[in-house]
Amino acid sequence: MVNILIISHSFKIAEGTKELAEEMKQADIDIQIAGGTSGGKLGTDADLIQEKLESMDSEDGIVVLADLGSAVMSFKMVKEWLPELKQKKIKLADAPLVEGAVLGAVEASLGKTLDEVLAAIEKKSIINKNNL
Amino acid sequence: MARKTKELFLKTADVIIENKSYLTELDAAIGDGDHGVNLARGFKKLKEKLETESFESRSELFKLTAMTLISNVGGASGPLYGTAFLNISKVISEYELSLDDLIEVSEEAIAGIQKRGKAEAGEKTMLDTIIPAAESLKNSRANNLDLNTALNNCLKAAAEGMENTVEMQATKGRASYLGERSIGHQDPGATSAYLMIKTFIENFLK
């Protein structure tokens, strides 16, 4: 199963997004978060992101959802420090955080591959609100 | 050489910590208002490490600075300055630095920052201080200027670069969300970069 890592400047956003995603999952996948700084402030904790990427099961892949600037930048930097094989199985989604995490949790827990999960959550229609 | 480099980093940490409110104020105008607080947190941690640990080489000190900023800053300036210092740690000479050495250091710093931030000159970022400073060093070499003159010119170029960010519109980072409203404010990243360059150069000329 593909697992999911949610990275946000805000611990509350990360935690709340995980809660929404957990509610939709169809089977047991691992959804982890790295939210805020180590001191509980808004920002990014590169060490925590590294710890999560190292400890999470990446055999079938990890989809990463991130919010703004330093969350994305820190993730990319830390990813480069991982073994090459593991790097290939970790992909940052070009998707909005909440919608990406919720749909990602559904797709991943249905047993989709890493590329299939990414394709599903990177569709532009994921952000549609007015034609629901 | 490691002892002088350690003093230089301690001094840099003091300068950043002293300017915490100023940098945060600049950032509050066009960003999320945490640049000073973030950098000061990173440099405070660096100070603690510098005061308690011992070092054999310049390279080791630059690497420690890089990793401490990456782990403790919490904003984009952590990976940006962190990668710059990490790149420098890979090339820095352990002997007396020449103009060629300084040019190499400045190029490595720029390459590191661009790798992370994907910014070019003119986007209202720290690079708008660092790129003119590096260009000035290269001009000095082309004109066969001595090291002291080169450093004085470099400091002037860095200051001008920083001041020029006032008129720029931000197209990278949180300030880019403000669009045209980012014009008229000096960039906080360009300012912290100037403070660091100024401290390095003054220490060098001492």
TrEMBL record, chain A:
GO terms for cellular component: membrane. Residues 1-132 form the PTS EIIA type-4 domain. Its EC number is 2.7.1.121. Keywords: Kinase, Transferase. SUPFAM superfamilies: PTS system fructose IIA component-like (SSF53062). The keyword Metal-binding does not apply. Homodimer. The dihydroxyacetone kinase complex is composed of a homodimer of DhaM, a homodimer of DhaK and the subunit DhaL. It comes from Halanaerobium saccharolyticum. GO terms for molecular function: phosphoenolpyruvate-glycerone phosphotransferase activity. This is phosphoenolpyruvate--glycerone phosphotransferase. It catalyses: dihydroxyacetone + phosphoenolpyruvate = dihydroxyacetone phosphate + pyruvate. Component of the dihydroxyacetone kinase complex, which is responsible for the phosphoenolpyruvate (PEP)-dependent phosphorylation of dihydroxyacetone. DhaM serves as the phosphoryl donor. Is phosphorylated by phosphoenolpyruvate in an EI- and HPr-dependent reaction, and a phosphorelay system on histidine residues finally leads to phosphoryl transfer to DhaL and dihydroxyacetone. GO terms for biological process: glycerol catabolic process; phosphoenolpyruvate-dependent sugar phosphotransferase system. InterPro entries: DhaM, DhaM_N, PTS_EIIA_man-typ, PTS_EIIA_man-typ_sf. NCBIfam families: dha_pts (TIGR02364). It holds the Pfam family EIIA-man. It comes from the Bacteria. The keyword Protein biosynthesis does not apply.
UniProtKB/TrEMBL annotation, chain B:
One of its GO terms (cellular component) is cytosol. SMART domains: Dak2 (SM01120). It holds the Pfam family Dak2. Pathway: Polyol metabolism; glycerol degradation. Residues 3-202 form the DhaL domain. GO terms for biological process: glycerol catabolic process. It catalyses: dihydroxyacetone + phosphoenolpyruvate = dihydroxyacetone phosphate + pyruvate. Keywords: Glycerol metabolism, Kinase, Transferase. One of its GO terms (molecular function) is phosphoenolpyruvate-glycerone phosphotransferase activity. InterPro entries: DhaK_L_YcgS, DhaL_dom, DhaL_dom_sf, Dihydroxyacetone_Kinase. It comes from the Bacteria. It is an enzyme of class 2 (transferase). Its EC number is 2.7.1.121. Coiled coil: none annotated. ADP-binding subunit of the dihydroxyacetone kinase, which is responsible for the phosphoenolpyruvate (PEP)-dependent phosphorylation of dihydroxyacetone. DhaL-ADP is converted to DhaL-ATP via a phosphoryl group transfer from DhaM and transmits it to dihydroxyacetone binds to DhaK. Homodimer. The dihydroxyacetone kinase complex is composed of a homodimer of DhaM, a homodimer of DhaK and the subunit DhaL. PANTHER family: TRIOKINASE/FMN CYCLASE, TRIOKINASE_FMN CYCLASE. This is phosphoenolpyruvate--glycerone phosphotransferase. The lineage of its organism: Bacteria, Bacillati, Bacillota, Clostridia, Halanaerobiales.
